[in-house]
């Protein structure tokens, strides 16, 4: 896992537990919690939508995550230095990058044989 958090260093056990809970929520934010995200075209920004927000327009987003500056415009980010929205987007991007790497690794032998990519049927 390449994702890094940007929380301030915890000074107490309860602060460390808070961070652990936020990371746990982030891990399931887009899969189990009903949150959605949308990559905003040609920008490093992702619009995040709460489960009760049925609008899909990025302008109607609940939160804006900027992956280039590792920020989110939510109140929790302002208070704690990081949040579940930013971490969830980073985890999603890491998973996407891992899939691409795996595809490249699996396609390499086929490229060595002269194919542009792995044939659909072998």
Instruction: Write down the oligomeric state.
Output: single chain
Number of helices: 3
Structural class: alpha+beta
Q: Helix share of residues?
A: 40-55%
What gyration radius follows from the Cα positions, in whole Å? Answer: 18 Å
Intertermini distance: 32 Å
Strand order of the largest sheet: 1-2-3-4
Q: Main beta sheet, described?
A: 4 strands, antiparallel
Order of secondary-structure elements: HEEEEHH
| Overall pLDDT score | 91
What would the principal axes of the Cα set say about the shape?
globular
Tell me about this structure.
The protein is α+β, with helices and mostly antiparallel strands and 122 residues long. The protein has a domain of 77 residues. The chain is 41% helix and 12% strand. The chain is built from 3 helices and 4 strands. The protein has a 4-stranded antiparallel sheet with strand order 1-2-3-4, with helices on one face. A hairpin with a 5-residue loop joins β1 and β2.
Summary keywords:
alpha+beta; four-stranded antiparallel sheet; 3 helices; 122 residues; 41% helix
Structure in a nutshell:
The chain is of the alpha+beta class. The protein is 41% helix and 12% strand. It has a four-stranded antiparallel β-sheet with strand order 1-2-3-4, with helices on one face.
SSE topology:
Layout (H helix, E strand, L loop, with lengths): L12 H15 L8 E4 L5 E5 L13 E4 L4 E2 L2 H6 L3 H29 L10
Antiparallel strand pairs: 1-2, 2-3, 3-4
């Amino acid at each position: 896992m390449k994702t890094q958090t940007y929380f301030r260093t915890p000074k107490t056990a309860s602060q460390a537990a808070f961070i652990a809970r936020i990371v746990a929520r982030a891990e399931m934010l887009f899969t189990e919690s009903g949150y959605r995200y949308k990559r905003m075209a040609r920008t490093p920004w992702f619009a995040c939508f709460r489960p009760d927000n049925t609008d899909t327009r990025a302008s109607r987003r609940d939160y804006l995550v900027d992956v280039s500056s590792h920020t989110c415009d939510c109140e929790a980010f302002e208070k704690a230095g990081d949040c579940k929205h930013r971490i969830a987007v980073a985890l999603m991007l890491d998973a996407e990058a891992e899939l691409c790497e795996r595809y490249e690794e699996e396609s390499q032998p086929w490229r060595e044989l002269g194919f542009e990519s792995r044939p659909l049927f072998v």
